[in-house]
Input
Amino acid sequence: MTTPPQQPPFQPGGGGYVPPPGQPPYGQPPYGQPQPPYQQPGQPQGQPPFPQYGPGGPQGGQYQQPQPGQPPYGQPPYGQPQPPYQPQPQPGQYPQGQLQCRFCGGVPAVEATVRGHQGFIVLMRFLKLQGPFCKTCGTAATRDLTAKSMWQGWWGIASLIINPITMFLNLGTYSKFKNLPEPAPGAPGRPMDPGKPLFKRPVALGLLLPIVVIALLVTLANLTSEPSAAVGSCVYNKGTAAKPNVKVVDCTASEADYKVVGRIDGTANGDECARFEDSTVSYTDESRSKKYTLCLAPN
Ligand SMILES: [Zn+2]
Output
C-alpha cells in the first residue's frame, strides 16, 4: 500500500502539469517509482488527495482552488494587507485602489459586515462575515446568514431581543449591495450563489416563530388563570358587592358563600340568570378574552 505523494495543489488551467490525452489528470504514481499500468478512474488507488471536481471536470469550474491573496469563504482576512490580486496581469483592468470582493475578486465591491445569530437556550453564537463584497457575494452572504437567523436565532431569552436587531442590521447592509452595480464580467473567482430570495424560502416561516410562541404563552396564561367555576362548585367573594372578585373554594369551607347554579359562557349579562330559579346573585366577568356569567345561589 502506498500513500499518495504530497502533490502541489492542482491549478485548473494553471499550466503546471498537463495530463497526456487519454490519461486521468490525477492518480499519478508516486514519484520515483515505476510507472504502473493505466488506472481506470474511480479505482480506490490513486485517488486524488484533493477534493473531487464536480461535473464538468477540472475545466468546468465547479471547484475553486483558493487563490493566493484571496481567502476562502468564511475565513478571516489574513493579518497582513494583501495586494490586490491580479489573476492575469492585465494592466489597467482595475483602477488602482478599487475595492475588490473578498470572495470572488470582482468589482465593484463595497465594505460591509453581514451578521447572523444563533441561540441555543443558554449559549449564543454571533455569526459575522466581513467584506468587501461584490453585489452577488454580498447578496448571497446576507441571504445565507439571515436565513440562519430566521429559524435558529430565536432560541433563547436574550436571543429573542438580539435576533431582530441582527436581522434589522442586515437590512441596512443589504441596501448597500442593492445599490451596487452588477459585478463586471471576468472576476478572478467564482462568486457565491445568491440562491432564492429569502421570502421564497421555507425558512422565512421562522419569522413567525416568536409570534407563535407569544400566542401560545398568552393562551396558556388565559387557560390557567380561568377560574374553574363550573356548575356545582362554590365561590367566595373576596371583593365587595359592587366590585366582586370571586374565588372558587371548597363547598364545605366556611367562606363558601355561594354555589354556582348556572354558568353562561360568551355573555356577561346577569339578567340571563333569570332562567335559573335558585339564582339570587349573578357574577359577570369580561376581563378576559372569554367573557362569562355565573348565576349564584346561597350555599
Ligand atoms: Zn464577489
About this structure: The first helix runs from residue 135 to 152.
